[in-house]
Structure formats: structure tokens, C-alpha cells
Amino acid sequence: MSTVKYRGEAFSELISAIEPENKTNITGYTGTLAAITLASLAARKGVTLFVTGTVERAKEVFRLVSVWMEPNSRRLICMLPERESIYDQTAIDSDIMASRLSALAADKHEGALIIAPAFVLMERFFDPPKWINSCFDVSTNDMISREELVEKLIKSGYKRVNVVEERATFAVRGSLLDVFPPDLEYPVRLDFFGDDLDSIKKFSIETQRTFDKCQHVSVVPVNEYVATEDELLGITSRIEAEILKQDERRSNLLSRKLEHFMMSPDTLDFKELKPFVEKGYGFIWEYWKDCRIIIEESEQCFLGLEETTKKIENLYKQLGDMTPLMPPRHYYHDYRRLEELLSERGITNFSRFGEKEDAIFKDIELLPPPTDESRESLVKDLKHLVDNDWAVVLVIDSENRFNNLKGLLGERKIKIHSSARPFGAAYGSVLFLRGYATHGFKDYKRKLAIFTEGDIYLSADKEVRKRRHSGRQNIVQIEQMVPGDIVVHADHGIAEFRGIQTMTAGGNTREYMLLQYAGTDKLYVPTDQVHKVTKYIGNEGYIPKIHSLNSKTWILQKTKISKNVEAIAKELLELYAKRIANVGYAFAPDDDLQRQMEERFQQVRVWRGSWRRRGTVQSPAVVRPLFLEPRERI
């Protein structure tokens, strides 16, 4: 009697053989095999922190592993630094901040695989247990009043608004409470019946309509710190005393940071100013219970941290009185102490090189580079594998190639099946997956074959090349600006555009827009965030006042405009409501005299473009009206 095989069996057998959770050294794993191994760890309970050498490598690993995750899975997170260093004054990507908060709260979702560059290990954190204890869950049928929940949200840093359109905000309307936790993709709507929470649903920002029911929602603090009013006042007092000790330039810069901190303190304000009172002694892994740490090429990672430390120290010396902040040691852990702690704690080394385990790799063959542009050899190979009851997966990034290959296999009568699960490969069939992958393989023991785009095509697709360079389209628009032009940044207000600069930090080279604000204030905006910068449009000849960074002026202006827009919207609503409420006048139907008069008019057909008109013809006695009718064929 033959054994019945099920979908995903080949992958289950492969992952069981690898047993990544029980290894202290994972060596020889590369390309797709490495991605599958990491994806299997993401499915395990608890948090696994996978550390890469650089930011770019972390992004690449995240893309590779994403292919093998369930749709809309929250068990894979890429946690990046907010900026190149604490002294970097570039604008911050809100998506990066949201991902960081999601990573810190990973234990609330029963764990995840968190991919982060080694630089994140050096960051000093403030009291991780306190932050975790500030997270709370809200479930349907909970006995909790709206007022109590509103108070909790305000303490967690959420801002009350009229309509929820951005993360970290909430709104109250009748029995409804809308809230948008910063680590969620969609906001949620809580519907109360008295003090009972009747339902929780996700809703769309664009339409404000609900679509999915939830049993519970986890609410995390808006910032990476939790502080009482007394703590914030203590920081304020310390900075005020520090301002008196500094020279004029540093005193002014520190005063501006304090002004912003007192008005609306955020994560970066706290990270910059809290070390004036005390350093943060927390490490990233302290946010998760029983966290497993895997470091890719650990020796190279630690060497990279040493180099990064020297670069930041040199940057601090070069800035001199241009920065009011403390020396690097107040913001980052010593890399030598970090290495000692990790060695004592125990880590798993992950390497693309090194000795390969015979028990696994003796049956696995990496695919050779493609040689046939016609795809005939691929079709023959796939047909042979399917006929011999192999489970085959094709991972294609390009949409054009994805559709073309699907059509080609359909024409050649090669069996294809669909699955919502990336590990849902079936024996005797081909499964197509959209996504980025490298270096496929054949596993002869488990009869599993995975082909990637690079294993099939000789060159990159035009579509992929276009996507890689799409980020430069914004640069073309920027180059239409001339240094000296006045621009407006969505978060920081009016500035002067000074041109494009290329800078290297942390081993990464990027292009930035340089914006000059009042005094010595400068802001470097990455070119992938130029959507926040627009050219100033005003009355001809009028020169606007340049704002200061972190001043109240721009925020007050935006608040005033927002209120004005609301007032105008209210007036329009009232106006159109009155128009709708007014009773219109209905004219009586045409009588016999009216119809007799119309019949006396002569009708002359003339051409007018693509329409045939009954034109206006004048005579001494009468002027005849103009009518339209559809063009008729002649």
C-alpha cells in the first residue's frame, strides 16, 4: 500500500532534518536554503534575533525570508536604526519607527524572527521591562470604560484627533473609539455598549469603513520610552542647567532641542537628552524572554562594530561645537563589553561558509548557472521532475516573467497548482511564488526542487532594473530645483534648498537633500523621502521667513491651517445641507401653444466637428435656436 503524501511534506522533512533551533553553529547555508531555515525559526514560539553585519544586508535577508512567510504574517520584522548615528540630523522614516516598536513588542504576539544590523546591538535602551509592562491588551467583552481607555492611551503617548488618519492617534465619536497603534498596519475601531466592549474591527483610513473583526488588539506605547511627568521635569531641569554651562552656539542648539522636548517629547528627544541625567543600561534582547541570538558571520560583525565605533567618535570630534549632545559613550554600549556579554550569554553563529553537514548536504545540489536563453532545457527539466513525482517551486520576482513562465508551463501541459502557503508544494506539480530569492537547489532525498529567477534567466529583467533605479526618479525632480530655492518640509517647515550631497556613514553611501534653516540649523533629507519636501509657492516677490528646526512656528501654523480647513469644511457642509433642504420649483409640462411654436421653426443640418448640429439660421423674421444630435452616417 503506497503512502499518501500531503502538501508541504517535502519542506517539513527538510526542516526537521536541519533542526536549526538545536544548533550552535549553522554553517554552509546560502541562498534559498538559508532563507527557508530562517523562515522556519520565525514560526517557532519565542523571539529569534538574527544579526547581520550591515543595514543593507539586513534588508536583503528580510526580502529573502519574506517569500517563505504566510501572507500578512507579523512574525518577521526588520528592525533598523532610526538614523546613521545619534548625531545625524536627517529626517526619520515613520515606517522604520513603526517596525522598531513592533519588534520591541514581539513577545505580545508569541514571538517573531527579528532581523537587525549589528549596530542596533550597540544602542542603549532605557528600562525595557518598564516599557513591556506599559503595553496592554484590549479584548471584546472586556469590562472597561471608554474614559479609562482614553486615559491609558494618553499616558502611552497617543494624540487625540477628530478623525484617525495617522499612527499614534485616537478619536472618540459616540460609542466608538478609533485608535491606530504605531506597530499595526491598519487602525482599529472599538464599539462600546456602556462599559462593555462589544466589538473590535479594522478599518480603512481612506474610506473609514470597517472590514475585519478582531478578538483583541495589543496597544503599545507610541515611543521607545515610558516616563512619568516627574522624570520629564527632571530632564528639563538638567538641560536648563546644562545650557548655562555651554558656549553660545551649543547653548542655542541645546535650547532648541529642549523647546521641542517640552512641547511634544518623542523617542529621539528622549534618547538625545536623557543621557544628560543618566545613561541607558538596557540591551535590545532584554525586551524578550528567552531570546535566541543568531549572528551572521560573527567575527566580521564584531570587527564592523569596532570600525563603526571609531567612525562615530571621529564624527563627534569633527562636529565640535556644531552638536550640543554628549560624547558617543553616553548613547552606545562599548563594543568590547558587548562582545563579552554575548559570549557569556551564548549565541549561534550563522555562516554561508564553513563546513557543511554531511547528513543534510550530501543529498542537496545547488543549481548551476543558466545557459539556455530559450527555456527549453528548463521545460524539459521541470517535466522530468514532475513526471517523477517531485515537488517543484519556482520563485520569480518579475511580474512579467512570472506570468510568462506560468503560460509556458500551461502550454506544455506541465501540472501547476496554487497554494496560499509558501511551503505548500505538492509532489508531481509546480508551485509558483512571487518574490526575491537567490541560489535554488535540488534535494534528491526529499524530492524537492526550488528554482529562482537567477537560476532560469541569464540577465536581469528590464522590469527589475527599472525598479532598482526607480528611487532615482525623485532625484530627477530634485535636480529641477536650484540651490537657493525656498522649500517646505512637511515636518520641519520652510527652509532653503542648498543642493544634493553624497555622504557615507556606517559603510552605506546615500544621497541627501541639504536644507538650510535659520542660523546654523541644517537638515539632511534622504532622497527616498523627498515626498516630504515641496517647492514653496507664494505671492510673486514675497520672501517667506526661514524657520528654525524644532521651533513651535511651523507646528502652530499647521494647527491654525488645520482649524481653518475644518471651519471651511463646516461652512460648506452647512451650505450644501441648506441647498438640499430647500424645495425646488417644478415647471409645468409644455402645453399645445408651446409645441405649435416649436414646430414652426425651420431646421437646417450643418456639420460642426464630430457632431451634426441643427444650426442657428438667421432671417429677417426669426432667429432659430441651436440643437445637438448625434452624428449620423451619410
Would you kindly provide a brief summary of this structure?
The chain is 35% helix and 22% strand.
Provide key terms for this protein:
alpha/beta, 20 helices, 6-stranded mixed sheet, 634 residues, 6-stranded parallel sheet, 35% helix
Describe the overall structure.
It contains 20 helices and 28 strands. The strands form six sheets. The protein has a six-stranded parallel β-sheet, with helices on both faces. Strands 6-7-8-9-10-11 form a six-stranded mixed β-sheet, covered by helices on one side. Helix 2 crosses helix 3 and helix 8 runs antiparallel to helix 9. The longest helix has 30 residues.
Strand content: 15-25%
Shape estimate: globular
| Terminal Cα span | 78 Å
Could you give the count of β-strands? 28
Percent helix among the residues?
A: 25-40%
Helical run tally: 20
The main sheet comes to:
6 strands, parallel
Mean pLDDT: 84
Please tell me how large the radius of gyration is: 32 Å
Topology:
Blueprint: H1 9-18, E1 25-27, H2 31-42, E2 46-52, H3 55-66, E3 76-78, H4 94-104, E4 111-117, H5 119-122, H6 128-134, E5 136-139, H7 146-155, E6 159-160, E7 169-173, E8 176-180, E9 188-193, E10 196-203, E11 210-214, E12 216-219, H8 229-245, H9 248-263, H10 267-273, E13 292-296, H11 298-319, H12 335-345, E14 348-351, H13 358-361, E15 364-366, H14 376-387, E16 391-396, H15 399-411, E17 416-417, E18 429-434, E19 441-443, E20 448-452, H16 453-456, H17 462-468, H18 473-478, E21 486-489, E22 493-505, E23 508-516, E24 522-526, E25 533-535, H19 552-581, H20 592-599, E26 605-608, E27 611-614, E28 627-629
Parallel strand pairs: 1-14, 2-4, 2-13, 3-4, 6-7, 13-14, 16-18, 16-20, 17-18
Antiparallel strand pairs: 5-12, 7-8, 8-9, 9-10, 10-11, 15-19, 19-20, 21-22, 21-25, 22-23, 23-24, 26-27, 27-28
